[in-house]
Design goal:
Length: about 375
Amino acid sequence: MFSFAAFGNDLHSGKRSFAFVGKRRIWYAIAVAMTLLSILSLALIRLNPGIEFRGGSEFQLSQVSDTSTIIGSDAVGEVVSGAEARVTVIGDDGIRVQTETLDPEETGEVRAALAKAYGVNESDVTSNFVGASWGRDVTTKAVQGLLVFVLLVGLIIAAYFRTWKMSVAALIALFHDLIITAGLYALTGFEVTPASVIGFLTILGYSLYDTVVVFDKVRENTERITSSTRRTFEEAANLAVNQTLVRSVNTSVVALLPVASILFIGAFVLGAGTLKDISLALFIGIAAGTYSSIFIATPLLVDMRRREPEIVAHTRKLLKRRAEGGAPAADPAPEYGSADEGEGLSPVGAGAATAVRNAPAAPSRRGPATRRADSGQRAQPKRGKRR
């Protein structure tokens, strides 16, 4: 019988291991494909900005017996010829109509036309006006907040882990999550409202939180990696991802379940725009953040650090000992990955072997006596003078 707790213990101890780092090209290909699809969606379909960003007039009706959107569009067209009206259903008996900016006289006429078309009292129709300048201010502030957030987070991560490479890997994973979230917003046609912006900013923190937890384990496993006789840097980093895998999955599932409930209730039951907008951003962002923290951030870090001279020298030394039978392979569960190169090596170790072979050889520091010994010359002891 499968035991999830035993499975997690096996991952933590290294008894079982998934080749997250060894198969990083597959994860990169998936991430690039999703990113390109999102960029194409943003370029071709484009985002659907809410009235708070584009400005305009908004009318809301309640207790409507017929929720047909065509009725609202025809009513607005009779008053303002050529005006584009966005009509959406809110809940079971609510209607929301958004138009371009109308003057006070046109606003009154549209209210009367909508009340007549849907068979409600004119007092049951509420109208609001949002200026385009307010939307521009919101957009500007959101972009400024994003830039300041990214700058501060990059500096803090670099200072905490004492390396800029972890900061770069975390920020790349973060932008991956943002682009995918924005692209799915364009595909679904959901409106981008201030609630959506709040959701975007929220997933920034969640994505980084998950990535930092994984990186903290990576730092713990690789702190004295050059003196290790068991694992290479790639293998130690891959072990860190496996050790935090159960925690990442559990945290994501616990976070996604209530967000999915809010999204379903907000979008299909209540028709509440604010709940729908913020929950969609959270749902997409949490799912993408979990993927990037496991499959993107740590493999990127390994790619940036595996050619450092100290790591190359340590990997070459350890792989040589394994080839001579002096050190065991680090991953004892080859069923979770295939050794690409090198018999008896884990998938991560095989990738490390490839990197070491492609790396330039370290300069020799041997002295003259050592070179003479290597060439077959035996060093002769110095003899004292005879008296």
